[in-house]
Amino acid sequence: YLFEPLDETTYELLKQDILRNMRKYFSIARVLNLQVFSDPNSAEENTLFIVLNIQLLDESLDVFDIEAKVG
Fold first, then answer.
1. Angle formed at CA 61 by CA 59 and CA 67, multiple of 5 degrees
2. What is the pTM of this model?
3. Do 69 and 43 touch, CB atoms closer than 8 A?
């Protein structure tokens, strides 16, 4: 995805890949929310944000927010 445009198609493809890999490699968690976007008002162009909210499926049912900024 490195040279892909930051548009809705790319965001959807990234979401699908993240969800697929979560199911495959981290099946002990349920994805509650996933957002992939760029900030058009940011001074840093070509920056991608990924916000993931998951809940563990063990007895604790802990909820985690994970944020990543790429760019």
1. 145
2. 0.84
3. no
Q: What is the pLDDT of residues 1-57, one digit of tens each?
A: 888 888 899 999 999 999 999 999 999 999 999 999 987 776 566 788 999 999 999
Q: Cα torsion for 21, 31, 10, 20, to the nearest 10°?
A: 20
* Nearest-angstrom CA–CA distance, 65 and 60: 16
Please write down the HEC assignment for all residues of the chain.
CCCCCCCHHHHHHHHHHHHHHHHHHCCCEEEEEEEEEECCCCCCCCCEEEEEEEEECCCCCCEEEEEEEEC
| 34: amino acid identity, one letter | L
- Name the residue among 28, 38, 26, 35 with its Cα closest to residue 53: 35
